[in-house]
Design a protein that fits this description.
Elements (H helix, E strand, L loop, with lengths): L6 E5 L6 H9 L3 E5 L8 H5 L2 E3 L6 H10 L4 E4 L6 H11 L7 H7 L2 H10 L7 E2 L6 H4 L7 E5 L9 E3 L2 H14 L5 E5 L5 E9 L2 E13 L8 E7 L4 H18 L5 E10 L2 E8 L7 H9 L3 H11 L7 H4 L8 E8 L3 E7 L1 H5 L4 E6 L6 E2 L10 E9 L2 H14 L1 E4 L36 E2 L2
Parallel strand pairs: 1-2, 1-4, 2-3
Antiparallel strand pairs: 5-8, 6-7, 6-8, 9-10, 9-12, 10-11, 10-20, 11-14, 12-13, 14-18, 15-17, 15-19, 16-18
Helix pairs in contact: 3-4, 4-5
């Protein structure tokens, strides 16, 4: 599909949006980036062919921008709050949108999508109905610890784990300040292993792209645990594909999902994935890099094509999707850094030369600061390293070697990288490859049609 000289407008100029600019330019696309930030605060604008300063929430101004500058398509990446505006702008400007405003409003609102999951018997974390006006009465049956979240948020903003009524009261205040609707969600806190499920939607067919362990660490006081790595495929994948994925497919069909991609974060409880967070969008974990290497297709490229043509544009995608990767393994090392100003990053070249490493992505280069406000947020992830392996042992060895080699040094001369993956993280969590080909589940049981 020839996209040379097509014009793409990217909503939001954060550093991670630079990934969209890179991909689009590699496809011959002319890129523009808009948000209301100045150039120095918008890294993607600095990289793009054109920079604009129109707020994505100003629909009238955005329509004029698209029409006046003859953009062929619009895309947004990694922030839930922009999605409804994206749908509105696309509708007004006559550009393809992979989802509708109504669909985005469901999947950015934790209360709405949890109700939908209950309707279709999709496992999710139990929640409590807490009334601020009748706080004492409504918390009588609460079993601590609990986790409090804004109904609409991303990047772990406004989330608190509570061990008492007093902590719960304060957490509700914090979450309400973050939530645009002032609505909050109080769930039972389950300290169990985690997994993330990635879906691809193409013209009304639903594909499980991959399901991996999301390894989180309690390596900071007073905040929720954040991911330090991902290993694929997860040991829970066969059961998920057989029992839960068909229920999710019915759920997607009920709200008319047709195109795009989605991630679902879950807790693993007795071998079952209990979903606690959803994003109907690209993700910061950069799994499209793993998928391009392992399976030969790239969800980000597909979303760019859709933005410009209205078609996901990947021939024979059904033959390419394989969450078992033909019996191989893939990984993501996410290096978290404690607050401080980054003076030096060391070991990148040595890491890039390791046999399994696919790509190293630096989110915070030298000179950036991990602020105290970032503590407990995904913004603490400073470097991501994506790789592949032929065995679990090879994957483990290389991931641990990456952690040994990498160093992020502060302007005070201190190591900033927090505790990461450990030997125990690999015990029983990764899918064990069977000897017989039929045991790979080559029956394509990860494809769900209309």
């Amino acid at each position: 599909m020839d996209l040379k000289d097509k014009r793409l407008l990217i909503l939001g100029g954060s550093r991670i949006s630079c990934e969209i600019v890179r991909h689009a330019r590699a496809m011959g696309v002319v890129t523009g980036v808009t948000d209301w930030y100045t150039l120095d605060r918008s890294p993607a604008k600095q990289m793009a062919d054109e920079a604009y300063y129109v707020s994505t929430s100003d629909i009238d101004a955005m329509e004029k921008l698209v029409r006046d500058n003859k953009f062929d398509g619009i895309i947004t990446g990694f922030t839930d709050s922009v999605l409804p505006y994206y749908a509105d702008i696309c509708e007004r400007a006559g550009c393809p949108s992979y989802g509708t405003r109504e669909q985005f409003e469901i999947f950015i609102d934790k209360q709405k999508y949890k109700k939908l999951m209950h309707d279709f018997d999709v496992p999710t974390i139990p929640e409590y109905a807490i009334s601020i006006d009748q706080f004492e009465e409504s918390v009588m049956d609460v079993i601590f610890p609990v986790i409090v979240k804004p109904s609409e948020s991303s990047g772990a903003r406004g989330i608190t784990i509570c061990y008492s009524k007093d902590e719960l009261r304060e957490a509700i205040r914090i979450a309400s300040d973050i939530s645009e609707s002032d609505e909050i969600l109080v769930e039972r806190y389950i300290d169990e292993p985690e997994a993330t499920i990635f879906w691809l939607f193409v013209d009304g067919k639903y594909y499980v792209m991959m399901l991996g362990n999301r390894h989180v660490k309690h390596n900071q006081d007073g905040v929720i645990p954040l991911p330090v790595g991902y290993t694929y495929p997860s040991a829970v994948q066969p059961r998920f594909l057989e029992e839960t994925a068909p229920k999710m497919a019915k759920m997607f069909r009920s709200v008319g999902i047709k195109d795009g991609m989605m991630f679902m974060q879950s807790k693993i409880v007795d071998g079952e994935c209990w979903v606690y967070d959803i994003g109907y969008r690209l993700t910061g974990s950069l799994e499209y890099i793993n998928l391009k290497e392992m399976c030969g297709y790239d969800p980000m490229d597909m979303l760019i094509r859709f933005a410009l043509t209205g078609n996901m544009g990947e021939p024979e995608i059904e033959k390419k999707v394989d969450p078992y990767f033909g019996g191989k393994y893939t990984y993501n090392v996410s290096l978290l850094c404690k607050p401080g100003k980054i003076a030096k990053i060391a070991g990148i070249t040595e890491i890039e030369n390791l046999p399994g490493v696919i790509k190293v992505v630096v989110a915070h280069p030298e000179g950036d600061e991990i602020t105290q406000k970032m503590k407990g947020l995904l913004a603490q992830i400073t470097i991501r390293i994506l790789g592949k392996a032929n065995s679990i042992e090879q994957m483990k060895t290389e991931m641990l070697e990456i952690q040994r080699i990498a160093h992020v040094i502060s302007d005070q001369g201190e190591e900033m990288i927090l505790l990461g993956m450990e030997d125990s993280d690999y015990e029983g969590t990764v899918y064990v490859r069977k000897q017989c080909e039929e045991d790979y589940c080559y029956g394509r049981d990860w494809v769900f049609g209309q």
